[in-house]
Specification:
- Helices cover 39% and strands 36% of the residues.
- The longest helix has 30 residues.
- The protein is elongated and about 80 Å long.
Length: 110
């Protein structure tokens, strides 16, 4: 009977260690996962669509390393075009690949 109890105890400890390891690994993976360029573009398009329709959009699938003062990150470039007062206006943006946050946005003269 003692061998069965030791086996059960070992099985419970092994299962608990596996569960904790799986949860920690999943959390680490999600924390270090980048957003896809499509997800970033959809976030930015959603914000622009709140002000009116857009004519077109694009995003680069190449990330580029960025540095602002002491902070290092990776970013992607993209753009949005829309009609404003009957004229086509273009915006170019730079977004963080981890959060999708817009780092810079510039209105271009056309």
């Amino acid at each position: 009977m003692g061998k069965l109890t030791d086996f059960s105890r070992g099985l419970a400890i092994g299962s608990a260690v596996g569960l904790v390891g799986g949860i920690a690994g999943s959390y680490w993976y999600q924390k270090n996962q980048n957003l896809s360029p499509d997800e970033i573009l959809n976030q930015i398009k959603k914000a622009f669509l709140e002000e009116g329709p857009i004519e077109g959009s694009w995003i680069s699938f190449e990330t580029k390393p960025l540095r602002k003062f002491a902070v290092r990150m990776n970013g992607v470039e993209g753009g949005i075009t829309r009609l404003e007062d009957g004229k086509l206006v273009a915006y170019e943006f730079l977004a963080d690949v981890k959060t999708g946050a817009v780092l810079t946005i510039d209105r271009l003269a056309m």
